[in-house]
Every structure is written in C-alpha cells, then in structure tokens.
Amino acid sequence: MILLPIVCAVLSAMCAAVLLRDARSRPRPDKIVWSIAFTMFAVAAGADAAGNALGWNTWLAKLYYFTGPALVVAFLAIGQLYLLMPAAMRRFGPGATLLVTALWLSLVENAPVDSTRLAADGWDAIERGPEMVAITILINSVGTMIIVGGAGWSAVQYWRRGTHRNRMVGCALICMGTLIVAAGGSLSRLGYYEYLYLAMAIGIAMIFGGVLMSRRPEGTNRNVFAMANATHFVASTTSAEVPSGMPGSVGGLAFVEELLLTRADPEIDAICTEWSVPRETTASLTRLEARRAWKLRALLSPEALKAFDVQPVGARRQLGSLYHDVLTWERPAREDIAEVVVPAESLGVARHA
After folding, report:
1. What is the per-residue pLDDT for 194?
2. CA-CA distance, 97 to 93, in Å (whole number)?
C-alpha cells in the first residue's frame, strides 16, 4: 500500500508550503507551527511509502514514529493555542513546544525495535512501552480536543455573527478533517491498518481545503489591501461615505480586522496615521476612548478579538477612533446641523439686510 501514503505526503507538503509562504509574508507563530506540523506529516507519510517500497530499516521506522504518531497532533494543537491564547502562548509556547518535542524524541530514540518483525511489520516493529503508549494517547486525545474545539468554536462564532463566511467554512473543514484523521489513527491502533491512510488522505484533504478556504478574501474586504496602502485619505466635502469597497460599518469592520490579522504594530500605527488618526502616548484610555474601543471589540471576529486584546493601549485607541470617527462616520443631515447651531439672534448679533 504505497499510493495512499504518497497522496498524504503530497497533500501535507502542499499545505505546509502554503502556510510557510503565508508565514514568510506575514510572520505569525500559529502559521509557523502549523507549517512544521504538516512538514512532519509529509515526512512520516513519505517514510511509510519508502519503507513499503524499498524495505524497512530501524532508522526509517524511527523517522516515521518520531514525525508521525504524536508530534503532528501536538504541533497542530500548539498552533491552535496560539490563536486561542496568543498572550499566554507567547510566554509559554516555545518552552512547551521544546519540552513536548524533546520528550517524544527521547521516548522514540530509546524504544527498542524488533528486527525479526521489521521487514514484515515496518514501523509497528517498534516496541512501545507503557510510557510511550500513555504519552501517545495523551497527546493525541488532548491535541485533538484542542484542535476540534478551537476550530469548531471559531466556526460557530462566525456563523452566529453572520460574518467571514469563508473562514467559517474553513474552520468547519479543519474541524471535520481533524476528526477523520483521529478516527483513522484510532482504527489503526485497533488493528485496522488498512483504513489508516484512507482516513488520513480524506482528512488531510479536508484540512488543506479548510486552510485554502480560510485564506480566500471575503466579499466585503477584497479591496482592503489596496486601501490600506493608499497614501492619502481624500474626504469629500459633499459626501461622508467611506471609499469604494468599504461601505459603512461592514466594510469598516473588515478593514480593521485585516489590520489586526495581517499587520504588525508599526504598520497599524502608520496606516492609522495616514487615515488622520495619529497615535497618542497616553498610558490609559479616557472614558470615551474606552467606550469606543469596547464597542469595536464586541464586533470583532474571534481571531481579530484576540489580536485586538494584545495590542498596546495606543493601538487600541487608534483603531477605536479609526472605526468610529472615520470608517463609519456619517455627515449629519442639514436639519441636524441646524439644531446644534446657535441662532445669531440668541447671541445678540444684529441681522444686516
């Protein structure tokens, strides 16, 4: 059985390449970790295909077991945690990743291999002691719950808000694909090895589809990048509408979310300044600024909300003002202006013919 492992290896490598390209253009720890996870999946599937085609040896069996059965799920879960808890993961994520990797590498390196079974059973000839079995079950069960729970929760939030349809579908595909991959792993541990790579191929294809779907621009924000790179904001003297491609609050919210999800803090500052909202260095928000920031926060998608919460105070002030005072501002009607203009007679100013 060589074809399905090759299919899994190719799909995983393609997914890793897409994520790595995104990580290079917009560095984010979740994308970096996920690209490593899919690279390991591709290596494991490739090792399985090579072993079945060319014959197994101890090095190939351990390469498969090091990259495949546990670390892929662990890294995917760590990437999901970077999305769910960015502030905490920035502090503890690298250490936790190194700890899990070192522990698993040590277990695999010290596991004996039954050479009499190696040619017939391949990687299954590795003798897994109780420690390795326990760690494998722990990593796979907890990791799967984190991935499925995080992706499923995000999909539900998008559905309830009625926004970011592409990301909603992408999260749902990632959730279902992870469950299928987990089911394949469970079947293999029960002795049904023939279903392992069938489930893996279907699951990886769904996860890859979810990644691609999540990258697709939404209908309301296709022109966001072009607007973000504009050097001037030209305000019409007769119309207060937001520029083309960003109508009203929907387009304004999409613009803010793109800033949060794709731009570093210096870029956010520069773009907000271009749009007439320079950064202030005051350490705390005023009551009005806090209310604006909170109103904006309540409208954001789950990923953008997490990114917003870890921004410095100055950036949150800028984004709140940008959204409420620029992107969704509406010029008062003439009669509304008349209500707030003090009549000349009340000031004692004589009328002149």
Report:
1. 67
2. 6
Hey, what domains does the chain have and what are their CATH numbers?
3-215 (1.20.1070), 224-331 (no CATH)
Q: Tell me the pTM.
A: 0.64
User: Half-sphere exposure of 45 toward its Cβ, with a 13 Å CA cutoff?
Assistant: 26
Q: Token digits for 344? A: 């000349």
Separation of alpha carbons 30 and 15, rounded Å: 14
Q: Which residue has the higher pLDDT, 170 or 250?
A: 170
Task: Give the pair of three-digit tokens for residue 298.
Answer: 């309540």
- Look at residue 330 in the predicted model and tell me its pLDDT: 60
Task: State the Cα–Cα distance between residues 318 and 309, nearest whole angstrom.
Answer: 13
Quick: pLDDT tens for 62-98: 999 899 888 999 999 999 998 888 888 888 999 999 9
Quote the CA–CA distance of 149 and 21 in Å, as a whole number.
26
47 touches 63 (CB < 8 A): yes
Cα(330)–Cα(324) distance, rounded to whole angstroms? Answer: 10
Look up residue 328 and give its DSSP letter.
Answer: S
**Dist CA 243 CA 251 (whole Å):** 9
pLDDT of residue 151 exceeding 80 = yes
Residue 118 token pair: 């190696």
